[in-house]
From TrEMBL:
This is Hydrogenase maturation factor HypA. Keywords: Metal-binding, Nickel, Zinc. Involved in the maturation of [NiFe] hydrogenases. Required for nickel insertion into the metal center of the hydrogenase. Coiled coil: none annotated. It comes from the Bacteria. Zn(2+) binds at residues 73, 76, 90, 93. Ni(2+) binds at residue 2. Belongs to the HypA/HybF family.
Length: 118
């Protein structure tokens, strides 16, 4: 399950980013995961819960934004869903596409700091 190594990397990077902003703990992390990134969102969520223990993200939530795979057909200017398994054939002009516009993302897009103790 490579999601555990991905979750660990997300936690390490989010911790670095939070500390750079002067925050000691994190309440939530938002990540964008493309349909073709090879990551199972539920498995990533479970791995995140396991890997966060004992870190500055111990109580943090993981929000996963799923990004559908979209391809572009230059000859007819059509953007279309690639689907799973991926199919790069334009449904409009019946030609193969060579340009993937989205679907491979795996990035942290937001870190929510934990509220300061009262």
């Amino acid at each position: 399950m490579h999601e555990l190594s991905i979750a660990t990397a997300i936690i390490e990077r989010a911790d670095e980013m939070a500390r750079a902003d002067g925050t000691d703990s994190v309440a939530a992390v938002t990540v964008r995961v493309g349909e073709l990134a090879g990551v199972v969102p539920d498995a990533l969520g479970f791995a995140f819960e396991v890997a966060r223990d004992g870190t500055a993200l111990a109580g943090a939530r993981l929000h996963v934004e799923q990004v559908p795979a979209q391809a572009w057909c230059g000859p007819c200017a059509e953007e279309f869903a690639v689907g799973m398994p991926p199919f790069f054939w334009c449904p409009r002009c019946d030609r193969p596409s060579t340009e993937l516009r989205s679907g491979r993302e795996l990035e942290i897009t937001a870190i929510e700091p934990a509220p300061a103790p009262a």
